[in-house]
Amino acid sequence: MRRGVLIFLVVNLLVVSFLVRSVFTLLSLLVEDASADAIHRAELPSPNSSLIEQRPQVIPKIIHQTYKNETIPEVWREAQQSCIDLHPDYEYILWTNEKSREFIANEYPWFLETFDGYKYPIQRADSIRYFVLAHYGGTYIDLDDGCNRRLDPLLAYPAWVRRTVPTGISNDAMGSVPQHPFFLRTIELLQSYDRHWLLPYITVMYSTGPLFLSVIWKEYMQTNPSESGRVRILMQDEYNKYSWSFFTHHVGNSWHGKDARLIFWMGQHWLFLTVCGFLLAAVVGFSLWWLYARLVSLSSKYRYRYSKIPAFISSSRLSSPTRASRRMMPTLLRRVSFKEDEEAAGVTETSYELYSRRD
Ligand SMILES: *[C@@H]1O[C@H](CO)[C@@H](O)[C@H](O)[C@H]1NC(C)=O
Ligand SMILES: *[C@@H]1O[C@H](CO)[C@@H](O)[C@H](O)[C@H]1NC(C)=O
């Protein structure tokens, strides 16, 4: 049974270290305030500023948006039009399903299988925006974000994303030069994050959505990118709060699926959900420990009982036990305890599965 305890402890240690390792970035995200890379409001001229813009505009003047086809629903027309009207000198590209697939097939054929294989349309809508930014550069804007002022000041940063509250970054408005290392890394890593996480919203968030991007961003920051590789952060106030902010939020959201609302809600509450996940993992871990402790106590009772039998048999039934029968009992006992070890290991393997989907 000592071996059983050892196996249990080793497996649990592995599970725990795997867990900590895989959620370390998530945990560190919780305390990341992005202040080091924030775009300070003092850097941004007011919308009608007389200040002569000195900084070169490095991001190309292209606006990218996505929708399944050319027919934009009424709720987002105004938002879409506000961006087009403010930027007559920008190229405007609407990435429909058909156009997106064609683009991936032509330019990034290695990704086509993953792209087609995504279970939820929103995953395609998420991933295509990273590809077009990495490829053409420009500014991506979700259909539910309207433009409140010209994007020009933001074109001075090689890459920017926007901060979300309480933590992390979003993928609903982003800008980049072509071939920016952050977006190259993002498209490179999409395939390895294409996993299922039991619940659709977690799958979407963590395979292609804001949580995925936040994790990539957090890890990318640790590589200490050079000035041109830096990803600057548009803070909440400059995003859509005030008259000088860049965007206005319109009702509805551009996610295509039926469960869009739910996904949207989950997206906003992922911190809460992460905490719930941890609590659940703790409960599962505790239950397994309890189960194992019970198994151990049960098996020691069995062993106690079995160990009595040979004496009983040998004294009352068999006047002189053969060597074979004496050898057999320990083997039998070993079998029993080995089987329990296997069961214990089986139980912990199940826990491993549960854990790994939980973080
Ligand atoms: C900037 O000027 C335009 C017209 O010239 C005006 O409509 C807009 O409200 C002004 N914006 C701010 C923030 O003052
Ligand atoms: C776009 O899709 C909607 C249904 O989702 C359909 O009503 C509309 O006709 C489509 N537009 C085009 C141009 O195919």
Describe the structure.
The protein has 359 residues and is an alpha/beta fold. It folds into 2 domains: 225 residues, Spore Coat Polysaccharide Biosynthesis Protein SpsA, Chain A (Alpha-Beta Complex); 36 residues. It has a 6-stranded mixed sheet with strand order 2-1-3-6-5-7. Strands 4-8 form a two-stranded antiparallel sheet. Strand 1, helix 2 and strand 2 form a beta-alpha-beta unit. Helix 5 runs antiparallel to helix 6. It is elongated and about 90 Å long. The C terminus is likely disordered. The structure holds 2-acetamido-2-deoxy-beta-D-glucopyranose (NAG) (2 copies).
Give the CATH class of the largest domain: Alpha Beta
Shape field: elongated
Cα-to-Cα separation, first versus last residue? 31 Å
Bound molecules: 2-acetamido-2-deoxy-beta-D-glucopyranose
Oligomer: single chain
CATH architectural group of the largest domain? Alpha-Beta Complex
In short:
One of its GO terms (biological process) is mannosyl-inositol phosphorylceramide biosynthetic process. By secondary structure, the protein is α/β, with parallel strands linked by helices.
Characteristics of this structure?
alpha/beta; Spore Coat Polysaccharide Biosynthesis Protein SpsA, Chain A; six-stranded mixed β-sheet; two-stranded antiparallel sheet; 8 strands; disordered C terminus; binds 2-acetamido-2-deoxy-beta-D-glucopyranose; MIPC synthase subunit; mannosyltransferase activity
